[in-house]
């Protein structure tokens, strides 16, 4: 997780992230509030027995979205570290060599892939924002958008031996879903899915069948719940192999009792309050976490 140094509203990402809301609050105050939310989130996750590697953002150049590292960086159980092409030019400075060096210092990194070259072509693939990756079954689920280019996705899938499952998805206003991870989250035994967002019935049927074939129970959410970040959740394991579902307080509050009961059959719900980061940044708790699948040295 990257502790932000210059959190704020990003007009470059707001052109297609309809979750963002412009704030009249001064940037200094936004930064202070975001830091408090970030630090509380780290503390809550650590209290679950989950290791968190916190990296400090640098003040210069200013990076309003540095708190969302999962869009440019991912790791895999095979020991790969991947850097992805980002849509907004002012986000590309988030890619810091010292973060890659920190991973290589503390973990076994067998390969590094950098797909940033596609930025000059105007083609993007924003990490685990764009892709819901099922490593166990070698599948990628992805909603195609300005930030998730189908050609780059298919090249990435082919290079890493994944089957790419693509579809079109829209929000409650009929606008394209900018990141797959706001409408879909894959746990070990379940999948939170905004089925209403997938308008083409045959695409929804295909997604359902693949999830069921890999023994994932589908827990549907509405487009209204998606707007409250109920799809932007992440299941983590602690050092005792216990499972926890990290979700925001707004996501938790939007869920019905029955949905919570279904989730609690598989995992422990851990609601965390991050209203400023969600509203101004347009990203949720899942976006704030880059999972480290690498082996510790």
Q: Write down the CATH topology.
A: L-arginine/glycine Amidinotransferase, Chain A
Strand content: 15-25%
What Rg do the Cα atoms give?
A: 18 Å
The ordered string of helix (H) and strand (E) elements is: EHHEEEHEHEEHEEEHEHEEHHEH
Regions with pLDDT < 50 over 5+ consecutive residues?
none
Give me the side-by-side strand order of the main sheet. Answer: 3-4-5
Residues in helices, as a percent range? 25-40%
Tally the beta strands.
Answer: 14
What does this structure look like?
The chain is an alpha/beta fold and 297 residues long. The protein has one domain: L-arginine/glycine Amidinotransferase, Chain A (5-stranded Propeller), CATH 3.75.10. The chain contains ten helices and 14 strands. The strands form five sheets. A three-stranded mixed β-sheet has the order 3-4-5, with no helix packed on it. The longest helix has 21 residues. It is globular and about 45 Å long. The model has no long low-confidence stretch (mean pLDDT 95).
């Amino acid at each position: 997780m990257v502790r932000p140094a210059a959190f704020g509203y990003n007009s470059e990402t707001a052109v297609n992230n309809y979750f963002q809301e412009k704030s009249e609050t001064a940037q200094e105050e936004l930064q202070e509030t975001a830091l408090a939310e970030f630090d509380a989130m780290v503390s809550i996750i650590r209290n679950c027995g989950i290791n968190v590697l916190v990296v400090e953002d640098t003040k210069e150049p200013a990076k309003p979205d540095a708190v969302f590292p999962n869009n440019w960086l991912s790791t895999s159980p095979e020991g790969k570290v991947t850097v992805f092409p980002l849509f907004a030019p002012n986000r590309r400075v988030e890619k810091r060599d010292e973060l890659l060096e920190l991973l290589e210092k503390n973990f076994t990194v067998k390969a590094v892939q950098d797909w940033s070259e596609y930025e000059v072509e105007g083609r993007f693939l924003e990490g685990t924002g764009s892709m819901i990756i099922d490593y166990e079954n070698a599948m990628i689920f992805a909603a195609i958008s300005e930030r998730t280019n189908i050609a780059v996705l298919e090249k990435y899938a082919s290079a890493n031996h994944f089957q790419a499952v693509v579809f079109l998805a829209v929000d409650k206003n009929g606008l394209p879903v900018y990141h797959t991870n706001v409408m879909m989250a894959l746990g070990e035994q379940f999948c939170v899915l905004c089925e209403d967002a997938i308008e083409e019935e045959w695409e929804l049927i295909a997604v359902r069948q693949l999830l069921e074939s890999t023994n994932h129970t589908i827990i549907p959410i509405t487009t209204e719940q998606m707007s409250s970040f109920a799809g932007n959740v992440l299941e983590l394991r602690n050092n005792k192999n216990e499972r926890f579902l990290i979700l925001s307080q707004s996501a938790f509050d939007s869920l019905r009792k029955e949905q919570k009961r279904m989730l609690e059959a598989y995992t422990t719900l851990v609601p965390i309050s991050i209203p400023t980061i969600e509203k101004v940044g347009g990203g949720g708790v899942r976006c704030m976490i880059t999972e480290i699948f690498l082996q510790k040295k």
